[in-house]
Amino acid sequence: MFENLQDKLDRAFKVLKGQGNITEINVAETMKEIRKALLDADVNYKTAKTFTDQVKEKALGSNVLTSISPGQLLTKIMNDELAALMGGEATELDLKNNPTIILIAGLNGAGKTTFTGKLALHLKSKGKKPLMVAGDVYRPAAVDQLQVLGEQVGVPVYANKESKDPVAIALEGIAEGKRNNNNVIIVDTAGRLSIDEALMNEISEVKAQTKPHEILFVVDSMTGQDAVNTAKVFNDRLDFTGVVLTKLDGDTRGGAALSIKSVVDKPIKFIGTGEKMEALDVFYPDRMASRILG
Ligand code: GDP
């Protein structure tokens, strides 16, 4: 995960780390290298610039030049700022409603159905009693896929293969969950290959009718800036409550993880780190920052 970015940041820091005495010019040059590393990682330009400007200001403001170990101090500042860039504190799901309704949104192939199964397992292991609703009406295989995942994680699935109406299926699923005392109802929805009006209208309608407490936008982290742009469009229409970044296990660059919070101002709540149902982590910005800086 993020190997390319780690290497580049490491190289940028090497110059400073060894030096007992550093100058403002050294700091400025290191920031330039760091900005380049961020741009190579597919972080958007504005985010990268604001970030390095801030780190530089904090570094000079905290007397990094006269510190005994300037490299270490700068690493600490970078760590704090990277964590802040990715959202600061971890943001938990709002699960206080009974039942809590969670809508899963995103494009085809992002990992929605897989995440629905992973989230059900995660909630079950926390003592919840979830139900999954198979709302991806255009991809018949998605219903089967969710049913297989349901068996695997031991969580029931509501499906209605006869219907092609995503709103009706979502409402039927919620009614079924209420009857069976499920305290979390996770509604998987249909995606499209790319953003189109029909998809946006449909998911907006599902939102309007089901009144979810959480809307999680699922996106493939390997798509970098595309992930960020897609997030922006979905957020403008849906005002989602959190982001799920999938396939971080294959993402060597990290641009989406670093840019998405500053662009859409919504927290990353979970990360997918593999195809298995257990490969889901709550997102902790500070841990991710430490990991990136090695
Ligand atoms: P959907 O169309 O959004 O429902 O996407 P799927 O859930 O069907 O996922 C598409 C593909 O991505 C599948 O082959 C999944 O196994 C894979 N996938 C999903 N999440 C992850 C992840 O975190 N890591 C990896 N490596 N693969 C994932």
Secondary structure layout:
Layout lengths: L2 H15 L6 H17 L4 H17 L8 H16 L14 E6 L6 H14 L4 E6 L4 H14 L3 E2 L7 H14 L4 E6 L7 H14 L3 E7 L4 H14 L3 E5 L8 H10 L3 E5 L7 E3 L2 H9 L1
Parallel strand pairs: 1-4, 1-5, 2-3, 2-4, 5-6, 6-7
Antiparallel strand pairs: 7-8
Helix pairs in contact: 1-2, 1-4, 2-3, 3-4, 4-11, 5-6, 7-8, 9-10
Bound molecules: guanosine-5'-diphosphate (GDP).
Strand order of the largest sheet: 3-2-4-1-5-6-7-8
- Per DSSP E runs of 2 or more residues, the count of β-strands stands at 8
Largest β sheet strand count, sense and barrel closure: 8 strands, mixed
Cα distance spanning the termini = 11 Å
Order of helices and strands: HHHHEHEHEHEHEHEHEEH
Shape: elongated
Strand content: 5-15%
- Stretches where pLDDT falls below 50 for ≥5 residues? none
Please report the number of helical segments: 11
Helix content: 40-55%
Radius of gyration: 21 Å
Decide which structural class fits the backbone.
alpha/beta
Mean pLDDT: 93
Small molecules in complex: guanosine-5'-diphosphate
